[in-house]
Amino acid sequence: MREKFSVKQTNVTIISDKKYIETAKKSILDTRKDLEIFIREDPFFSIALEPYLREKEETPEVVKRMVSASNKTEVGPMAAVAGTISWLAVEEMVKDGAKYALIDNGGDIALLNNKRCYVGIYAGESPISGRYAFEIEPREKILGICTSSGTVGHSISFGIADAVTVFSEDVSLADAAATAFGNMVEDDLEESLNNIKEALWKNEELSGTVVIKGERMAFLGDVPPIVSADVDEDLITKP
Question: Which SUPFAM superfamilies does the annotation name (predicted)?
Fold first, then answer.
C-alpha cells in the first residue's frame, strides 16, 4: 500500500506492506528528533554550505551519514538530509522483515524491491518530464535514487538543471551528489557534463547519474534502463 506522511519539513510517500509503514513513520520521527537535538546544540550544522568538519563526542547516526556524504561531495551536510532520513527508515523496515520498501522524501528515494518497479522522472517544465521512468530490477540491497533541481522545489541549488538524478547504494551519498552535480550545471551543458563526469569518477560508491536540462538528457556511468511511461503527477512527492 501507499501512504503519504508529513512531519514539519519532511514530506514522504511510503510504499510497502501495511505493517511496515508504521515502522517507517517511527523511524522518521526518531531520526528527526535526533537531528533536531543536534542542530539545537550546533545551529551552524543546518546552514553550512561547505563540508562540516567539527568533531562531536556523541553524534547520532543521521548526522554521521550526512557528514560523510557531504564531505565526499564538498557540499553542506543538509544536502544529504532527505536521502538519509529515507535510508534509515527503509533499513528499519527491512529489519522488521519488509521485502519491498520504498520511501520517497521529496524526490530522494531509498528503495528495496523484490519485484520489478518503475520510478517516474519528474523534471519540472522540461518536455522530458512525466514521459519516462527508470526500470528497477529486483534487488537484495537498498538503492538510493536521489534528485536535485535548480528549477523545481525550494532546496538550494546553484545550477540550472531541471533534474539531476544520482544512483548509489549509499543513499546519503546519492543525495549529496545530486546537489553537488546540480550545482555544476550551467549554460554550457557539455562543459558541465565534463565536470560532473570527473566528480562522478572520484566516488566509486556512485553508480551513475542522469542530467536533464530542457530538451536534453545525458547519461553518465551505470544507470537503470529508461522506459516510456505516463507519470501521474499526483503520485509525485514534492518537497
Answer: ApbE-like (SSF143631)
* Residue 49 backbone dihedrals phi, psi, to 5 degrees: -105, 5
Tell me the three cell numbers of residue 53: 568538519
Q: Which domains does the chain have, with CATH numbers?
A: 2-235 (3.10.520.10)
The C-alpha R_g of the chain, in whole angstroms, comes to 17
Specify the pTM: 0.92
User: What is the reported pLDDT for 239?
Assistant: 59
Over the stretch 132-183, which tens digit does the pLDDT of each residue have?
999 999 999 999 999 999 776 555 566 789 999 999 999 999 999 999 999 9
User: What pLDDT is attached to residue 48?
Assistant: 87
Q: What is the dihedral of CA 109, 125, 77, 169, to 10 degrees?
A: 30
Nearest to 181 by CA among 75, 67, 48, 76: 75
**Extended strands (E) in the chain:** 2-7, 10-15, 101-105, 108-112, 117-120, 132-136, 143-148, 163-168, 206-213, 216-221, 226-228
The count of other CB atoms within 10 Å of the CB of residue 227 is: 10
Nearest partner of 25 among 37, 36, 14, judged by Cα:
14
Which of 48, 39, 81 shows the shortest CA–CA distance to 239? Answer: 81
Which residue ranges of the chain lie beneath pLDDT 50? none
